Each structure stands twice: as C-alpha cells, then as structure tokens.
C-alpha cells in the first residue's frame, strides 16, 4: 500500500500566500475601524442619555423646592418678593414692588413677601419666617425689616420681623393677617389676593391710616332636603288623627242612617 505524501510547497504557493496577506490585513483593519465607530456611537448615545437625564432633573428642580431654597437666597435688594411657590402673577409682582417700594421710602420699613410650597423641616410658619429674617438681616439690621410668609400647601402664613417692625404693626394685626387674610384666600387658592390684601393692611398700619377689615369666611349654607325627627313625628300624629277621624265617620254615619230608617217604621 503506497503512503500519501504531503504536497510540497512550490514557488506558486508561496507567491499566492504573499498575495493573500494584504487582503487579510485590509479586512482586519476594516473590522477594527468598524468596532471603533461602534464604540464611539455607543459613547455618544450614552452621553446624550445622560444629558437628557440631567436636563429633566433640572426642569423638575422647582417642583422639589423646599425652605432651604428660601434660606439660600441672598438678601433682597431690588425686588420685594421671593415667589418660590410660583403662585404670584406678573401684575401682582409689579404691584408688590411698587407698593412696598413706596412704603420703604416713606416709612423706612422694608417688607418682603415670601411664598413657599410647603415646609418640611421647620414646620412652624412663624419659626421659619423668623429664620428668614435672621438670615437676611442679622443683628440690628433687622430692626425695621419684616417678612410676610405664605405656605401654599398648608394654607397658612406668618408675619414677623425685627423689633421695630413688629411693634409698629402690632400683635392684633399680625394675628388677623395670619389667621384671616392668608388662610381664607389660600383655601380658595386665591394666593394673589391673599398677598395683596395682607400687604394693603400692613401698608395702612405702617402709614398710620385706617386699616381695611379682615375678610370674612364665606360659609356655604346648605339647603336641607330632609325632615327632622320632630317634623316626622309631627306628621305622623296629624296623619293618625285624620285616619281615625275618617274611620269614625265611616262607622257612625251608616249606624245613624240605619237608626233613622228603623225609627220611621
């Protein structure tokens, strides 16, 4: 049996291998480039997704605002409001700047209006308002400074400030604004009216003018569509009397008629 021997390399075989090597190198280069492009595309897509997340987080930030945003605000020097709850209209903001600007020029008292959606850490409105005043006007600087705070979620508010401001406003008006103006209008979600009516009363008091009356709560009087127990019992008594009377008449009248007939006979 003859043994099969390996085919010897010829000059043509070596030449074919040499000719194939450039093609292999080109294919490998194309593969590496394709992988590199794919990697760059993945990186770009990841970067775009990350930017979208950051953008959405930035847009949602105002909805998550808390009292720390107020305490982080620099001391107001131009505007007379910090509307962190975003409930004040453009006309209300303009009116506040005008009213409170004139008030500061005429009387020397500076009042800032602050709105916040809710209080999470310092839940007492007056305590938080005191922190705002102390943060903006430390020491003797707060003497003639005041803050009107409105918490929209809690439908509550506070009026506080330095010793000179609180003394000029008076406890009665402070209690009336925090107990009437702010909660009454806030419960109806009339936040602009709550702020403006409160500022009008503060402005009048600090200018020595007659202070407008506090708003009155509108209690809805419900029409009763049902009878009370007394009315029901009274109706039953009248009905029973009428029924008994009819029964007596139905029994007595035939008897009288029968008696009349027999008496004639």
Ordered list of secondary-structure elements with their pairings:
Elements: H1 11-60, H2 67-71, E1 81-83, H3 90-107, E2 110-116, H4 125-136, E3 145-151, E4 156-161, H5 163-169, H6 171-187, H7 191-206, H8 229-264
Per DSSP, the total helix count is: 8
Mean pLDDT: 78
Backbone CA Rg? 44 Å
Low-confidence stretches: 1-6, 50-64, 221-229
- Strands of the biggest beta sheet: in what spatial order? 1-2-3-4
Main sheet? 4 strands, mixed
The level of helicity is 55-70%
Shape: rod-shaped
SSE order, as H and E? HHEHEHEEHHHH
Q: Terminal Cα separation, in Å?
A: 162 Å
In terms of DSSP E residues, the strand content is 5-15%
Structural class: alpha/beta
Question: Total strand count, please?
Answer: 4
Structure notes:
The protein has 265 residues and is an alpha/beta fold. Helix content is 61%, strand content 9%. It has a four-stranded mixed beta sheet with strand order 1-2-3-4, sandwiched between helices. α6 packs antiparallel against α7. The chain is rod-shaped, with a radius of gyration of 44 Å.
Features:
265 residues; alpha/beta; 4-stranded mixed beta sheet
Describe this structure in a few short sentences.
The chain has 265 residues and is an alpha/beta fold. The chain has helices at residues 11-60, 67-71, 90-107, 125-136, 163-169, 171-187, 191-206, 229-264, and strands spanning 81-83, 110-116, 145-151, 156-161.
């Amino acid at each position: 049996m003859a043994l099969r021997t390996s085919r010897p390399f010829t000059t043509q075989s070596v030449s074919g291998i040499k000719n194939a090597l450039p093609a292999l190198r080109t294919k490998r280069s194309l593969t590496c480039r394709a992988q590199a492009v794919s990697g760059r595309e993945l990186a770009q897509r990841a970067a775009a997704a990350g930017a979208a997340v950051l953008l959405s987080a930035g847009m949602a930030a105002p909805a998550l605002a808390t009292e720390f945003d107020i305490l982080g605000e620099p001391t107001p020097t131009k505007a007379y409001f910090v509307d962190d709850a975003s409930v004040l209209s453009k006309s209300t903001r303009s009116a506040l700047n005008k009213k409170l600007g004139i008030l500061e020029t005429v009387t020397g008292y500076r009042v800032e209006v602050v709105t916040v959606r809710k209080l999470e850490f310092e839940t007492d409105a007056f305590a938080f308002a005191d922190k705002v005043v102390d943060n903006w006007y430390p020491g003797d600087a707060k003497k003639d400074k005041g803050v009107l705070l409105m918490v929209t979620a809690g439908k509550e508010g506070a009026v506080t400030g330095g010793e000179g401001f609180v003394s000029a406003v008076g406890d009665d008006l402070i209690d009336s604004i925090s107990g009437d103006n702010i909660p009454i209008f806030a419960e109806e979600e009339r936040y602009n009216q709550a702020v403006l009516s409160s500022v009008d009363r503060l402005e009048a008091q600090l200018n020595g003018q007659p202070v407008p009356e506090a708003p009155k709560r509108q209690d809805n009087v419900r029409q009763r569509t049902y009878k009370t127990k007394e009315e029901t019992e009274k109706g039953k008594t009248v009905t029973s009397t009428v029924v008994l009377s009819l029964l007596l008449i139905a029994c007595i009248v035939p008897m009288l008629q029968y008696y009349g007939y027999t008496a004639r006979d």
